[in-house]
Write a structure and sequence with these properties.
The complex is a heterodimer. Chain A has a four-stranded mixed beta sheet. By secondary structure, chain A is an alpha+beta fold. Chain A has one domain: Hypothetical protein apc22750. Chain B (Translation Initiation Factor IF3, 2-Layer Sandwich). Chain B is mainly alpha-helical. Chain B has a domain of about 150 residues: Zincin-like (2-Layer Sandwich), CATH 3.30.2010. Chain B has eleven helices and three strands. Chain B starts with about 20 loop residues before the first helix and ends in a 12-residue tail after the last helix. Classes of the chains: A alpha+beta, B mainly alpha.
């Protein structure tokens, strides 16, 4: 094998294999993660979350407590490749949209989980933060973090 | 006034993501990126072909003057062959209708290589291996006329800019820009550039016109091609000159057609080499 074809294999072959492998592992993990998120969301459906800052006058709320949940999800080689192509031509990066959706929903699920552990059943002033975590060189995003936080209360009447 | 009833309905999936299958997305964007790349490459190639002939010859000359010329010793005492080549080149160049600013420099290089070529900056390299095959001044004039025609038609700079573009495109694809290497290779006079068949045929035809102007006939002009063909049959490795030029039979046939069209004769006295 001459130098040129070796270079070709290194430059195209190795990334191609990584992309294919990452597609299968990434899709499998993503599907399973979404199933888990949906299951947890159903379990936590009775915990209400609102973005409003002030407690409405007709709410009787007790025991305010800061609750938060965060999730860090890794980018995979396939998602990065798809995003790289989008970086040239523009448009929706579907592979990153699902990544951030998982991070956001997982963060809210964990926040609600914490609210329940503290005896809360409603969370007000819910906010979401996202952060990108970079590899050492700072060139490529390796993973994303979503954090959800808010003030948890226990509603005295239970029904609202 | 009753307390408003709050519910937490199940939101349908696929609102914030999943509008398109990831593979479909990648296939679509890859196709667009590849098409864009092809358009850019073809576009730049066409642009280069259009613009390069307009570049002043002096720029081309300046480019080669800055490059180290490995293997070509320009300062050494000139050999008789080099002196003879220089004077013959001057005569052929005068018969070749060169633009005023175009300067031709011929270099005689000792060695077995059976080759001769024109390169950037009006430099022509003739190797000893090819020179010994020449049997008359007419054949030598035809050879020099051919290389001078390449320079006049701006073939070296066209070929060089094409090669530069190709290495640029490969560099982007391979994420490793070997542009500097390509530039150094091209600047070095000992690297032959590749010309198209059309460029070769045109150079032959221009050379024949110059030979007619100098000697009034084409006798001996095609001897070199015939001899190279003979040599090619004797040795296993075909001469480098053959690898970069059309078949000798084809070139001789082309010249005969051109001669009969213009009423040129193949009858006349061959001038011997000194």
């Amino acid at each position: 094998m001459d130098e040129m074809s070796l270079e070709f294999v290194l430059n195209f072959g190795v990334p191609a294999v990584l992309i294919v492998v990452a597609y299968f592992t990434g899709s499998l993990i993503e599907q399973r993660h979404f199933r888990r998120i949906i299951k947890k969301e159903n379990e936590l459906r009775d915990i209400l979350a609102f973005a409003i800052r002030r407690v409405p006058k007709d709410f009787a709320l007790l025991e305010p407590k800061l609750v938060c949940g965060s999730a860090v999800i890794s980018v995979d080689y396939f998602k990065k490749f798809a995003a790289g192509l989008r970086g040239i031509i523009g448009g929706r990066i579907g592979t990153y949209e699902s990544l951030f959706e998982r991070a956001r929903r997982e963060a809210i699920v964990r926040m609600k989980d914490e609210a329940r552990r503290h005896g809360g059943n409603i969370v007000l002033n819910v906010k979401l933060e996202t952060a990108r975590i970079y590899a050492g060189g700072g060139r490529a995003t390796v993973s994303v973090e979503a954090m959800a936080y808010g003030t948890a209360y226990s509603k005295s009447d239970g029904g609202a | 006034m009753g307390v408003p009833k709050h519910t937490n309905p199940k939101v349908p999936e696929g609102i914030s993501s999943g509008h398109e299958h990831p593979l479909a997305e990648v296939a679509k964007s890859s196709a667009i990126v590849i098409a864009l790349f092809a358009v850019v490459v073809v576009g730049s190639y066409v642009a280069v072909r259009l613009v390069t002939p307009l570049l002043p010859f002096a720029w081309e000359r300046a480019l080669t003057q800055r490059m180290p010329q490995a293997g070509i010793d320009t300062d050494s005492a000139e050999s008789p062959t080099q002196r003879y080549l220089t004077s013959l080149t001057a005569r052929v160049a005068a018969a070749s209708d060169l633009p005023e600013d175009m300067v031709i420099t011929v270099h005689y290089v000792e060695g077995d290589t059976v080759n001769a070529f024109a390169t950037l900056g009006g430099h022509i390299v003739v190797f000893e291996g090819l020179w010994t095959l020449l049997n008359s001044e007419n054949a030598a004039a035809m050879l020099l006329g051919h290389e001078i025609a390449h320079v006049r038609n701006r073939d070296p700079i066209l070929s060089a800019s094409g090669a530069l573009l190709a290495s640029l495109a490969a560099g982007i694809l391979l994420d490793d820009v070997g542009l500097v290497d390509t530039l150094v290779d091209m600047g070095s006079l000992l690297i032959a550039l590749h010309f198209s068949r059309e460029q070769e045929t045109q150079a032959d035809s221009d050379a024949a016109r110059a030979v007619i102007k100098l000697y009034g006939h084409l006798n001996g002009a095609t001897d070199l091609y015939a001899r190279i063909q003979t040599v090619a049959k004797e040795v296993k490795q075909p001469p480098a000159f053959l690898a970069s030029h059309p078949h000798s039979e084809e070139r001789i046939a082309n010249l005969r057609r051109q001669a009969s069209r213009n009423g040129w004769t193949f009858q006349g006295d061959k001038k011997p080499l000194p």
